[in-house]
Write a structure and sequence with these properties.
Layout (H helix, E strand, L loop, with lengths): L2 E4 L4 E3 L4 E5 H4 L11 E4 L6 E11 L6 E8 L4 E5 L2
Parallel strand pairs: 1-4, 3-7
Antiparallel strand pairs: 2-3, 4-5, 5-6, 6-7
Length: about 80
């Protein structure tokens, strides 16, 4: 089952069509469920978008993770930053 978050917890960057947030802000241990994806919802409407996991950004050594990338079928992106 996809991890579900309120869209208002995310920053929206219209110029790059991307939602962003620091992982610690979300308060979930989501790393083990990346493959399940992320669903963004809005409480007062039927707004719902599903983002599938596509990649992990790592440093050159491959040991440190910068963040996780997700993509929606409408082309919007979601980046969870590993802080």
């Amino acid at each position: 089952m996809a991890m579900k978050f309120n869209v208002n917890k995310f920053n929206w960057h219209p110029d790059i069509q991307t939602y962003t947030q620091e992982a610690s802000t979300l308060g979930h241990q989501f790393v083990h469920d990346l493959g399940a994806g992320v669903t963004l919802v809005e409480d007062d409407s039927n707004f719902r978008q599903f983002f599938r996991y596509v990649s992990t950004d790592k440093d050159r050594s491959g040991e440190d993770i910068y963040g996780w990338n997700f993509l929606c079928s409408n082309g919007k992106k979601l980046l969870l930053v590993n802080d």
